[in-house]
Design goal:
The complex is a heterodimer of chains A (316) and B (426). Chain A is mostly helical. Chain A has a two-stranded antiparallel ribbon with strand order 1-2. Chain A has 13 helices and two strands. In chain A, helix 1 crosses helix 9 and helix 1 packs antiparallel against helix 10. Chain B is of the alpha/beta class. Chain B folds into two domains: 202 residues, 3-Layer(aba) Sandwich (Rossmann fold); 167 residues, Rossmann fold (3-Layer(aba) Sandwich). Chain B is globular and about 65 Å long. Classes of the chains: A mainly alpha (316), B alpha/beta (426). At the A-B interface, helix 1, strand 2, helix 9 and helix 10 of A face helix 2, strand 7, helix 7, helix 8 and helix 9 of B.
């Protein structure tokens, strides 16, 4: 059992921190522009595909640096020439715009790269087990993923709270007109933040692509969960997103690892149902079976009992 | 007076012209019927997360139609086969919509394969439609959905299955596993839907019968297409000390699972149904060598006949990036065409009667039998391993492919008939 616990924690951390890289960009973009970017996970997918193509010619490490930059520039262009124009027509138009963009990107990916799973591999340099514990290997690449995500979190937090740029961004979030009156170029800040946010999503794609497989459905699989994190953490709160990411990563990981379910609960209550019972599916349900659904359950609970999210500041 | 006379003459002339045009258009239509293409629907996911499987199936079916029939003068005395793609996104709801579209476009034959849940939905829709619209029936040709229920409890006169069902495949797979004395502890993991449950229950039952000493150390379900990272599941597999895994996963769920098992350094065989082609073989590559095993029909290596080898080579020439992922599509189409030639038409009722108990020799030179009582096909089944040695026809241009290790002749795969079919009367 201890080995399951240790690895469940490690797996939860890897997933959680990866989710944070996506959620951080999404939550900052939301708090600044008030728009939920439905296409955010699509930029994550673009990151993986760009890095895959680059890695074919120049190797993994070039892809790691170039792909997020390309995605970031793409994101900035989308903000400058798409979102900003749509912005005048209100939030619904923006929402619909990003929603359409998500479909567009998915179709474009299928058009250019095909529908097959791509053979995007971890670099040889990191293709060894970092350590072996209780007979199970923890690959160096996962360690690398952990390191990068933690680095991103620290860097982002420092920039936002300690630097001058961060101060202006924070001010632009709450009082955009005041910041503009002080002579700052608020639209430029918006574009930059959108670019950096999408670049972070792209970076998440680059490092997740080799382990979580690179295929056209990868945005869809991760997309919904990122929104869950942003809402649970509190819209616009970076520490909240961090907390929620880890919470959800660990929650899923532990739920899968736990060998408990309805049969145990029934045994505890001294109840028993025959296999032919109409609700047999319910009585034999295991916690691990519904693990990937748990975040959505948590979302519903948070919305009912704490609508602002764990660390949200917005007053309703 | 003169005026009205002219008017009447002009009118009658106009009328006669109109009649001539009408008559000639009728005769054109009558002639067009003879040379009109035979339109066949292909309903599978062509977009969304499972698009790669559907698209590769469509490519194989279209190629088979052109290669085997259209380029050789067509069927039924010169009519071409036209494959009409219907994208159901692998969702039962979208399947209903696409089915209505097929009906309104006048399609009478529909190929469908991916996901037993979808096949069941389509089966229900087809049966209901055919009951309500006698004379307008639709035929469902299932080339890949392997939940036994489709030819057992829910069997229908209008449904034919051209693939061995899950229990037949697991019979072969567990025979093969039973022969491996090294396996003592088995872990079963699968997608949480009808097919995944059939795989789990049947593997457990068959292994208990054939090798009571094998301990089932895990029996796990996960939501289909929802899992981002399989590592937490693999942690449980490692902790259970399993020395083999059985899974019915397909698509991204298959790749991610195998990837996670490999990444955790667990060196145990993985017995699967769908772990090849569409990028999977290339992605698993060296890591999957001698580790991934599949149960399937139509041996991929070696290919027994020159005829099928030529089919593969010509397919590769036309589609260098693709593979003949499901050769049974060519078989199903050929059997359908044989039924059309026998009945001299495309009426689904007549076709169904002709398909019943049809014996057919495939491109591999192997005789298959479509049982009349439940519309289940019987063909040779194989267990193959992923390797790069002795591979003439690889997958994903990766050098790796499937090499047959174990073969069970069709006669030994026959299972008991459990279908009580309601046969429509004409």
């Amino acid at each position: 059992m201890p080995e399951v616990l240790v690895f469940a924690t490690l797996n939860g951390l890897v997933t959680g921190l990866l989710l944070f890289m996506l959620a951080s960009g999404l939550t900052v973009i939301f708090s600044m522009m008030g728009v939920l970017n439905f296409a955010h996970a699509s930029f994550y997918m673009l990151g993986a595909y760009f890095a895959y193509s680059i890695s074919l010619y120049f190797g993994y490490w070039t892809g790691l640096i170039l792909a997020p930059l390309i995605v970031g520039v793409l994101g900035a262009l989308v903000e400058r020439y798409g979102l900003r124009r749509v912005h005048q027509h209100g939030h619904v138009a923006e929402l619909v715009f990003t929603f359409g963009l998500a479909f567009l990107i998915e179709e474009a990916v299928q058009f250019f790269w095909g529908q097959d799973t791509k053979n995007y591999q971890t670099p040889d340099l990191l293709d060894f087990p970092l350590f072996t514990l209780f007979g199970q290997e923890f690959s160096a690449y996962r360690g690398f993923m952990l390191a990068i995500s933690i680095g991103i979190f620290i860097g982002l937090y420092q920039v936002l709270t300690r630097s001058r740029v961060g101060l202006i961004i924070q001010a632009a979030i709450s009082h955009p007109h005041m910041v503009a009156n002080l002579g700052h170029n608020v639209p430029l800040i918006f574009t930059a933040v959108f670019g950096v946010g999408t670049a972070l999503a792209g970076l998440a794609g680059v490092i997740a692509g080799p382990v979580l497989t690179t295929f056209p459905g990868m945005a869809l699989v991760l997309g919904s969960i990122v929104f869950v994190i942003v809402v649970i953490g509190g819209l616009g709160s970076l520490p909240g997103a961090f907390l929620a990411s880890l919470l959800i990563g660990l929650l899923q990981s532990y739920a899968i690892a736990a060998n408990v379910g309805m049969p145990d609960l029934l045994a505890l209550l001294g109840l028993e149902f025959p296999r032919s019972h109409p609700l047999d599916d319910l009585w034999t349900l295991n916690l691990s079976q519904i693990a990937p659904i748990l975040p959505f359950l948590l979302l519903v609970l948070v919305l009912i009992f704490r609508p602002t999210g764990l660390m949200g500041k917005r007053e309703q | 007076m003169v005026h009205s006379f002219f008017l009447a003459r002009a009118c009658s002339r106009l009328l006669s012209i109109f009649l001539i045009v009408l008559a000639s258009s009728f005769s054109i239509q009558a002639r067009a019927q003879d040379s009109e293409p035979v339109r066949i629907g292909f309903m599978d996911p062509l977009s969304g997360p499972f698009a790669s499987i559907g698209t590769s199936g469509l490519t194989v079916l279209q190629f088979a139609a052109d290669y085997l029939f259209n380029s050789r003068g067509g069927i039924l005395g010169g009519r071409m086969i036209e494959i009409v793609p219907l994208d159901n996104m692998q969702s039962p709801t979208e399947t209903q919509i696409q089915f209505r579209r097929a009906v309104s476009e006048g399609l009478r034959i529909i190929f469908q394969g991916n996901s037993s849940a979808v096949a069941n939905a389509l089966n229900t829709a087809v049966t209901r439609h055919n009951r309500r619209n006698p004379g307008q029936e639709i035929l469902q040709l299932n080339y890949s959905a392997v939940d036994p229920i489709l030819t057992e409890e829910n069997c229908s006169f209008w449904h034919f299955r051209f693939d061995a069902h899950a229990v037949m495949k697991l019979n072969v797979l567990t025979d093969f596993i039973a022969g491996n004395e090294d396996i003592q502890r088995m872990y079963i993991i699968g997608q949480d839907y009808s097919f995944g449950h059939v795989v789990a229950e049947t593997s457990e039952r068959l292994l208990r019968e054939k090798r009571p000493d094998i301990e089932i150390v895990g029996n796990e379900f996960h939501p289909i297409g929802q899992v981002k990272d399989f590592t937490p599941y693999v942690t449980k597999i490692v902790a259970s000390n399993a020395d083999a895994v059985i899974t019915g996963n397909f698509g991204a769920d298959m790749v991610s699972l195998a990837r996670s098992i490999i990444d955790s350094g667990l060196d145990i065989p993985i017995y699967t149904f769908y772990a090849a082609y569409d990028g999977i073989t290339a992605t698993l590559g060296t890591d999957g060598k001698n580790r991934i095993r599949l149960v399937h029909n139509d041996s991929a290596n070696p290919i027994p006949t020159g005829e099928r080898k030529q089919f593969y080579r010509d397919f590769k020439a036309a589609h260098p990036d693709r593979d003949v992922t499901q050769p049974r599509l060519a078989m199903a189409l050929s059997m359908l065409v044989q039924a059309m030639e026998q009945t001299g038409g495309t009426d689904p009722y007549e076709l169904a009667l002709a398909l019943e108990d049809m014996r057919f020799t495939t491109l591999s030179g192997e005789e298959v039998w479509m049982r009349g009582s439940d519309h289940q096909i019987f063909q040779d089944l194989h267990v193959s391993v992923q390797t790069d040695e002795g591979i003439e026809f690889d997958a994903d241009n990766s050098g790796f492919g499937l090499l047959t290790e174990y073969k069970v002749p069709a006669a030994e795969t026959i299972v008991e008939n459990r279908c009580e079919m309601k046969r429509p009367q004409r």
